[in-house]
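Hi support team,

I submitted a single chain yesterday and got back a structure, but I'm not sure I'm reading the token output correctly. Could someone confirm the output below corresponds to the sequence I sent? I've pasted both exactly as they appear in my results page.

Thanks,
R.
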Amino acid sequence: MDYFHYWGKARPDSEGPPCHLLPFHCLDVAAVGWYLLAPERPLTRQLATQLDLPPENMRKLFVWALGLHDLGKFARAFQAQARPHSVELVAPLPRFAYSERHDRLGAVLWKGNWISWLQDDVLQWPQGQLNRVERDSLSKAFTALMTPMFGHHGKPVNGTGLRVESFFGCDETSDDIEAARHFTADWTALIEVQWPRTFFTSPDWRMRLETLSWTLAGWAVLSDWIGSNREHFGYHDQPMALRDYWDDIAKPSAIRALKAFGFHDSAVPIPYKGLQAWFDGRQDITPTPLQHQAERAELLPGPQLFILEDVTGAGKTEAACILAQRLLSGGHGEGLYFALPTMATSNAMYARLGNLHRHFFSTQSQPSFVLAHGARELNEDFVRALDKVQPGDLDYATDEQSASSQCNHWLADSRKKALLAEVGVGN
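Hi R., thanks for writing in. Yes, this is the structure output for that exact sequence:
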């Protein structure tokens, strides 16, 4: 297939395969997203409820879109950023300048081609031909779905104001747009996306999808970070069937990566059983009036705010922890974050919670626990907990780091990881 003539990741050194083919990288990221949206996960259930979709259908829809997150790398302008040796790739075309990031170029390519792809059955659209009103409605729905995916480097992008022909080209051997079209068709057939009719007939449904855009963007960013890790997703520079790569390489690699980074199995919250359970059953531990109130406070459905005020020594921290455990076990959240006013108080809380936070989850769980502030590398406990940095991929341009380069910073920078951990402390 012509889409195997495009690289997605390039190696800055000479060891091993010189590049990772673009279709394979797209499937790596999609595989991570596939498992992060497993039907049993709380996030999946929450999103499916909000969109009134069966979890498995919603999973296929979002993972299909995620698999197209790097369509912009089919641009000949991007492909000229590296010339991996000993691999048959498209030739650079000097007339194209790489003046726009690949994430935005993906949005440009999609905007210019989705209608023709729909009409040519690339997207396997089951609803037949659309009239103008339906097409306009569908355009808004696709924008709501695809914008978080193309924004996988942390900020929204759009496809307006640029011409596809300024970045995507063809020569006597390859056509960039045709290669992207073929990949999209084969990926759509592989994932077997189930298109909901409400996708383009219900403005209310589209509005609900739009309200989830930042959640979807965060899922896409996390999937791309993990799916770009070379230690778990090795380079493959020789073509193979997408189905074989998806089943035999991408999905098993995603499971290994998620296990290594602590995302494979969510920590399981347990019910609050009294302060004595936090302190090895000591009978001399009795709750203060504030803590007793935290034990009895009514928990309501949906978002809620508790404000705890009392004198020094009244046990406000423990009272807050009581509420946190009760909320966790009641399904109101998947983690907690302690925001303190200073680095010193953050360090103190990090040490104080060294064991306490484990009482919020089952003994089989291994909740992630991170410190997030500007001087965290001076905290010996935190430094010992840092993951090793992976080897880097080649950055695309001076102002555009590759996902795995960002992933290096993420693994070592808990200011980013803190909000993904089950328990975080910072200021």
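A quick pointer for reading it: The first helix runs from residue 22 to 36. Let us know if anything else looks off.

Best,
Support desk
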